[in-house]
Specification:
mainly beta, 4-stranded antiparallel sheet, globular
Amino acid sequence: GALLPNASGNAKLTAGYGPRHAVFNKTGTAVYVLSELAPSITTFRWNKFTGAMTKVATTPTLPAGFTGERSAAEIALHPNGRFLYASNRGDSNTIAIFRLGVDALPVVTGRVETGGKTIVFSGDTNGNDGNLTALAAQDEGTASRFRALGMDPVHRRALLEGYLSGDGWRDIDTLEVTRIRGLNAVTANVIFGKPHRFLVPIG
């Protein structure tokens, strides 16, 4: 069938923000839009009956006072529905972690250094309680593999840990996390050539 304009109109962001990716929350009542040019997450309330999106708030992905080159690229919702992850590029190269409260608004709980430049990442949304996040450095031909550990009971925040590996990849465009024969499978889709895949044991 054809795609037709919705009668409720378009959802608008601040001019110059450059919306790049969006993800729904687990209950389907909110949409989180990641802006590339002004790194931030804009929260919209979503009406499932009319498709209308109402802007509620905008949350930066970078700390206040950050003065370096900036951009944002990827956004992912943890399978438990309580956390958002967003990647910062430019001079930051971090993964920003957000907790989602009862009002569905993201609250930053920390940022994790990725050890690479121009990162791409993918969260595990196909099971395993979201315990794996795979990252790759697009400009450096390296790959970082991180596990998302869920919620720290002391600090009440999501944690990431991992290591940088010199796999010598080049021109990585996107990553996908799936399950193959009981193992986490990370597939790197490259701009030129065939995809690369590696298996990562759980634990």
